[in-house]
Amino acid sequence: MGLTVERRGSARTLVLSGRLDAASVARLWSEVVREAAAARRRALILDLAGISSWDAAGTALLLAAERAHGGSVELQGASVEVAEALARLRQAPRPAPAHTDTLGWLYRGLAAIPGGIAFIGEAAVAAVRLPRRARLFRVADVLRHADEGGVRGLPLALLLGFLIGLILAFQSLVPMRRFGADIYVANLGAIGLLRELGPLLAAVILAGRTGSAFAAEIGTMKVNQEIDALITLDLDPMTFLVLPRLAASLLVMPALTVVLELAGLVGMAVVLMSSGIPFAAISHQVTAWVAPADAIGGLAKAMVFGLVVAGIGCASGLSTGVGPRAVGQSATAAVVGGIVATILLDGLFAVVFYKLGW
Amino acid sequence: MSAHAVEVVGVAQAFGARTVFHDVSFEVETGEVFVILGGSGCGKSVLLSLIVGLRKPTAGRVLVLGQDMYAGDAAAHGVALRRIGVMFQSGALFGSMTLLENVLLPLEMYAKLPREAREAVARAKLAQVGLADAADLMPAEISGGMAKRAAIARAMALDPPVIFLDEPSAGLDPITSAGLDALILELRRTQGTTFVVVTHELDSILAIADRCIMLDRAAQGVIARGDPRRLREESTNPTVHAFFHRQALAA
Ligand SMILES: Nc1ncnc2c1ncn2[C@@H]1O[C@H](COP(=O)(O)OP(=O)(O)OP(=O)(O)O)[C@@H](O)[C@H]1O
Ligand SMILES: [Mg+2]
Predict the structure, then answer these.
(1) What domains sit in chain A, N to C, each tagged with a CATH number?
(2) What is the ipTM score, two decimals?
């Protein structure tokens, strides 16, 4: 396989010879295209008389040369098959120039908003109609999702809660002690955990473990046309797939949160006791300063977070595109969306609770 | 109710700027086996999804058992859906359920049968497609041809009067495929079931089809309609001729 360039008069001739297959085309591609482009204002002749064999890659090379040149190109010594193959390839539409958009993420995020609103609407309608379609709502599914999202998430909640309690107490103990206020670390830790960290971390656990699983499960069903199959069986996917998942998340979030908070309090107590504060003092601080409203407000937040995280997981599953990569993208979107939404909502709750004087 | 099981009136479907087909119209009579033919990528599966209510066509109307699939109230739509069975080209079995559970699901939801009866019916449906011994396998544990047959069993679960099958015999050996054809003909004879079948298998078409339409990708629509046996003998359209005589089409 070789290429020689001849300049006969004003025309430029590219003489190709030998085998024109994928391997040789790869070697010659840039040179041929460059020579063809350089001959833009002149006539270009492709001399193919010396070609011994060719395949689709060879045809593609000829087309690329033609397009780089831009004008009309004369083929010399081309066999009928080559000429025909080239003619067929010419009819194929040109690939659209790939435009790289740096704002793609922002755009996709904004583009998801109408879909998200539609999802909320459909889920609400499905919930309202539930009494008439109670049969589609399978309690066994709720229990299965509650088991997977809640019961199996408990060890992680325990560990995370304990460590956060430990770290929180340890970090705040040092500066507080300088003011002789180390006993108040108990108040700080308890209030922080019950009002803020407990619900927030439980939501993060739910997003990472369960929201992503919802998105991947439903996304795979979408890709496999199982959602279509459900629709043609008159099994509304909202009632059949989404509502049980929302219900399960609503159920497990308080449990996850309470476990996380208790583990956090234990972690905090361990640090405080090891720094010499007696247990009775810690427990007195906690019970005297923490109002039931703190715990209840935290649990209410947790339930809202659970609903939102699960909803985002299901919605990104249902909006999955085609192919296995789309499933991965949906799972990622579920986790990212779940965490971001939780934190935004948490900010909103902070304002509302402040206004309510809670 | 109209006499037509399915009525497709001037439907068109485009994806962005690309038109798959336009102005496709046909009726399927109650109790007939109607075959949709056409080369790969001409829009047969898309047409089927339009008919069963999964994708609103860009233009046109679809009536199944007299019910407009894209208008009217949700309840009537649901009733129409429960009176059709659909087998997708990919099978689309529920991956987290065994074959038996797949067939049981529509029965559990909509058949007023006691539990044991439901299970007996589901097993009988699986036996009809030759999968009696595979009832407890998961979709991931069976072959492509078995998945298709299980999907047919699911589509038949509620004994719907109209069944849509997308390439039921693709990927099946000739014996199983002939068995499926026999099942279709038997259901039509004994229960008067209407079938709308997408298939490429010449033998199968000639064995089961009362009438057919042929779609073509280049023509973006219907290029032939009628009795396939007559089309085979009489059609002068080069694509139709090539199809029925298994010839490559001259460029
Ligand atoms: N979701 C979609 N988005 C864009 N284009 C699509 C979509 N679904 C199908 N198409 C296009 O519609 C055309 C028809 O597809 P369809 O699956 O109906 O073909 P088919 O006739 O069933 O082919 P086969 O015999 O191979 O199954 C194809 O060109 C395909 O690219
Ligand atoms: Mg198809």
Answers:
(1) 2-91 (3.30.750.24), 104-356 (no CATH)
(2) 0.91
